[in-house]
């Protein structure tokens, strides 16, 4: 009788461990990832503040002449561009016009 109870108690303990262990694992990993995310957010905030301070210092040291708008290049002139010679279309195009079969005259006479 005690052996049966020991088997049942061992099974119950294993079942409870099987139920509890994944929850403990998820909670432990979740806390670790939350801590890492908090640290990363803190580092990103500090880096953003440093960049903002550097930009503020840069804008404070620039003179109004340095803040002028960028120049836009002028339109191209004739010297800058090349003219390609015009290409004339061929007098006759298409394989069917070169084929001496009976179909060739019928296809050539079709309206487009």
TrEMBL record:
Keywords: Coiled coil, Membrane, Transmembrane, Transmembrane helix. It comes from the Bacteria. This is Uncharacterized protein. Residues 65-112 are annotated as: Disordered. Residues 34-61 form a coiled coil. The chain crosses the membrane at residues 12-30. Residues 89-100 have a biased composition (Basic and acidic residues). It comes from Lentzea miocenica.
């Amino acid at each position: 009788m005690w052996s049966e109870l020991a088997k049942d108690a061992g099974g119950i303990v294993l079942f409870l461990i099987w139920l509890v262990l994944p929850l403990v694992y998820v909670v432990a990993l979740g806390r670790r990832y939350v801590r890492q995310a908090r640290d990363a957010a803190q580092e990103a905030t500090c880096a953003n503040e440093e960049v903002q301070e550097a930009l503020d210092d840069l804008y404070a040291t620039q003179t109004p002449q340095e803040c002028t708008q960028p120049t836009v290049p002028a339109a191209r002139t004739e010297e800058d561009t090349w003219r390609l010679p015009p290409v004339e279309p061929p007098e006759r195009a298409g394989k069917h016009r070169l084929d001496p079969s009976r179909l060739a005259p019928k296809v050539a006479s079709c309206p487009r």
